[in-house]
Structures are given as C-alpha cells and as structure tokens.
Amino acid sequence: MRVFPHGLRDVPLTVRDSHGETFTSDDLTEVARWASRADDPMIDLVTDLGEGVGLYVAGSPDVVEPQPSLKLEGGMIFMIDGDPLLKQPAGFHLCPLSAFLDKGREADSLDDLTWYTPAQLNIVTPGSIPNVVLMTGRSRQEGQGKWKPITSTFAQFSAILLDHKVGEKNGTCFLQGESADGARKSSAQIANHILGVDLDSGAPLNDVMATIQKHGLEAVIYTTHSHLKDTSEIKRDHFMKKMDANVADLELLKRYLIERKGVLPHIVKKLEVLDDAKHTAEGVVILVRHEPIPKFRAVFSLSEPFIFAKRGGSQQDAINEWKERYAGFCTDMGFFFDEKCVDPARLFYLPRHKNSNSNFGSWRIAGNTLDLDKFSRVKISRNRRSGAARGPQNAFTAAAIAAGANDYDDDPDRYITDDGFNLRRWSAKFAKHFEIQTMLDTLVGGDFIREPRPSGKPGVQVECPFEAEHTTLGGSGTFVVNAGDNYADGFEGGFTFNCQHAACNGRDRLDFLKELLENEIISEAGPTQQKLPARA
C-alpha cells in the first residue's frame, strides 16, 4: 500500500469524506482501511505541516503543459520531488483517493511517472496565457476618472485571485476590462477581457467546478465575503410587490428566494423568519434564517477581448450584445446569476474574508479560454418603461413638473430597483429637499459634471445615465438642479434631473436616479436621510 516513494514517504496523510470527517495517519494501510468505510473519501496532498507533497489541479489535463504526473477524470496531479512546497493551505489540494490509487496501480512503477521540483511547476494552459487589461479601484467608492489600468496575463491575475486575504468586503476591486479616462460606466468601457459571475444560489463547490470542467474552461473560483452566511435580509417592499403579498408568509418567502433569487430548495427547506419588519438604514427588511449558503465568484478568460467599438452597429447595440452574450453564457452553463452582473462596467471585489472565518478559499480550473460568441444571446428585461407618463400620483406642483420633476406613471413597479428600493416612496419624503447637484459634484465628480447651465440658470450640466442611447455622445442637454436653487427660483417641487435628448423623451427624474443606482454609480443611504447616496 505504500504507493508514494518520494515526497509522500513517511508523512501524515489526511483523508476526509463528503461529510467533512477526517482521518490522518502516516500509515497508508490505516488510511486505506478508513477510506474503505468512508463516503467518497478525498486525499489531501498537503501534510499537517502545510507542506505540499503533490499538487492537484482541477480541469482538463490534455491542454496543460507540462504534462501532469497522473491524469484523473476532471483533474490532474503533479508529484513533488525533492523539497515540498511550503505554507500550502490544507484542504485545497484534495483529490479522490480511489482514483489516485487506481491510477498508481495502473503504472508499472510510480518511479516511472514524471516528478517535478517546485521550480518546474509553471503550469500553462490556453486559458492562462491571454493578456488582459483591467481597471482597478481602491473601493466601490472610487471616483470617476480615478480607476487605474493594470496589464497582465490571465495567469498573473489568477495568482492575485488565488491569494485570499483577511479584510472587509468593501476594498480593492476590479472591472472586467479597460475603460476610457479611468471612468466606471458602460459607455466608457473600451474592451472587456474577462467575465465574472457571482454564484449565490447555494450550489456546492464540487457542482460548480464540475460544470466548468465539463465545458473545458479556464477559471478561478473563490468564496465571497458572505460565503456560508445563514441569514438573509429581504427587501420587504420588493417581496410584497413580486409575490403579491401583504404579510411575510413563510411559503411565499421560500418561493421568493427560490424563484427570484435562485436559491436552491434545500437551503430554504427549514426557513425561519427572525424579524418580519426589521428597520435598517436601507429600509424595512424581512430577516430570515436558512441553511448556510455557499457563495462563490467565478472569473473566466475570454478568447478575444470584447471590443465594444468593433462589434458592429451603435455603441448601445454593443453594450446590449455584451449583456445578452453574458446572459446566454450563464443560461447555457446553468448558472443562476444576478442580473446586475450583465452590466459591462460591473465591479467585483478581490477575494477577502473575515479574520474569524476559516471557511474560505480560491481554486483554479485549468482549461481553455471562453469564446463568448459561441453562446446564445438572451435578452434581459428590467421592466423599465420609457413611455410618457400619464397621470400624477405624487404631490408635486405643476411648476416642478415643468422643470422635469414629473414623478408619476401608471406602472407601480417602475421606480422599484432590483434590490427593492422604492424611489417613489423616497421621492415623496425627500425630493423637496434633495440637493442633487451637491451630491453628484461631491461624491461622483470627474467628467460626469460638465458645464454650468447657460444664461446664469441654476444647476449644472451632467452626463446622462442613458447617454449611450443618444444619437451623439458628450455635449449638453442633461442637467440637474438642487431643490434649494429651484425653491429660490420659484419652483417648489424639489430637485431637477432632466435630459432634453429625444432618446430620453418621457423619462422622469427618478428614471435617471434608478439608472445610476442600478449601475452602482450611487447607492441608497436610507430613507431616513435627506439624501440618496453615498456614491457606490
């Protein structure tokens, strides 16, 4: 049974089963005896001292250089000769013990296998070699014009993703490609070089990895900051609206999480309502407890950069194509994805975990690049209407309506964001006092703010959130005015956010705010405050 003549000689081996139970011994006979009774036993190629005596890599062994020591179904092993790899995380180099032993028995002698020193293990795949250009920011609050480009190979960027650090959720983050002038917005994206997907449905790591391996794709998967969290806050207004409910009914909550959030049924089987009306800074939520939810992020390298100016058609056509290709890829892969992720300028956090959390990790899957053009285009609808409003439902004066403050529409869901933030309710309470120009100038700034309005009019010209839909980019025609300036000028309806371009005809000031929210240019600061942000 002593099948490891080199690095694994006389070192403790840990075996664990699918339930997490472990057994450690330096006697392979005892290891095998325990494993024979275990459910799907896995061997850890890292000793209890953190020494890597073998390297297990998930993915497609036929596309890897150098050739692995042993090829397994869905993965490969590189045997370590000489000094082991130091400071390796135990539990992240697991492979099926039965497969390892079976492959070992098939060889005339394990001495005939290829063994590698750590210095020789520069594993190269088609998916690891593309050059990528990505924008990085210090946090989600990074200002427009301040995002910095980095250039590397996907393998070099993968090394960053494989380094899971202790830290708060809101920290260093990255975009999926390169943007113009350090801006973070869809219209500024020059090209996307990678594709990131948040996987929050509760699917276990093995299932996620198996899906990616089946398609032969290169990827890095890592746990997010809320991995294995067993409570969730559900925006009560969003739940009530989507489920046509007026109370926090347990069965409706289960359906909501399954149908609207993609959570797997076993996660919510024993759902418990802890607070049906918890008041937070972001509004009233329903606090529920469920099984711990595995949450991961997967990052893929693209075969070719998705260059928006070279896709044919208008810029908006290219932006829509990215969204639809993204949705098509996730749909074909069977990933339930957050629809916000389809935005070309979506940000993703680098791997971080709480200091007290030991349930974290990053894993590489070796394979090929992702050819996005091979996947279907799937349209994503956010139920946004752009038609003219038909009748007032909020108490704003005619003067304010004339100034672009017509907060009304016959669609009651129009001004509720994907996160359940009700802009209509917010507006009824705070619009008359909202200093929008001050907020945008202070918290967004950069080239988003353009020129003062002509002829000494109050307010300032800004970039339209829907500028990509305009016939021409840049220029004037979109402006904001503080509520206080409107009041001093005789308009008592609150702030103004208006665009005079034909593409924005019929849009209300709340449409513009909603677009900024859904692109995370700003975020909700809570209905108890006199302002909408802070800036995302």
Total E-strand runs: 26
- The level of helicity is 10-25%
Total tally of structural domains:
4
Report how far apart the termini are: 58 Å
- Judging from the principal axes of the Cα atoms, what is the shape? globular
What structural class do you assign from the helix and strand content?
alpha+beta
Low-confidence stretches: 1-9, 382-410, 526-531
How many helices in DSSP terms? 12
Which sheet architecture does the biggest sheet show?
A: 9 strands, mixed
Whole-number mean pLDDT: 83
* Beta-strand content bin: 15-25%
Radius of gyration: 27 Å
What's this model, at a glance?
The protein is of the alpha+beta class and 536 residues long. It is 21% helix and 24% strand. The strands form six sheets. Strands 4, 5, 6, 8, 13, 14, 15, 19 and 22 form a nine-stranded mixed beta sheet that branches. The chain has a four-stranded antiparallel beta sheet with strand order 2-1-3-7. Strands 10-9-12-20 form a four-stranded antiparallel beta sheet.
Question: What report would you give on this structure?
Answer:
It is a single chain. The chain is α+β, with helices and mostly antiparallel strands and 536 residues long. The chain folds into four domains: 13-120, no CATH class; 131-225 and 295-374, no CATH class; 229-293, no CATH class; 398-518, no CATH class. The chain contains twelve helices and 26 strands. The protein has helices at 28-37, 97-106, 154-161, 205-214, 236-243, 250-259, 315-333, 398-402, 423-430, 436-443, 483-488, 509-518, and strands at residues 13-16, 22-25, 42-44, 54-59, 70-72, 75-80, 94-96, 115-116, 131-137, 148-153, 165-166, 173-174, 177-179, 189-199, 219-223, 229-235, 272-280, 283-293, 296-307, 348-349, 352-353, 362-366, 449-452, 460-462, 478-481, 496-499. The strands form six sheets. Strands 4, 5, 6, 8, 13, 14, 15, 19 and 22 form a nine-stranded mixed β-sheet that branches. The longest helix has 19 residues, at 315-333. The protein is globular, with a radius of gyration of 27 Å. The termini are far apart.
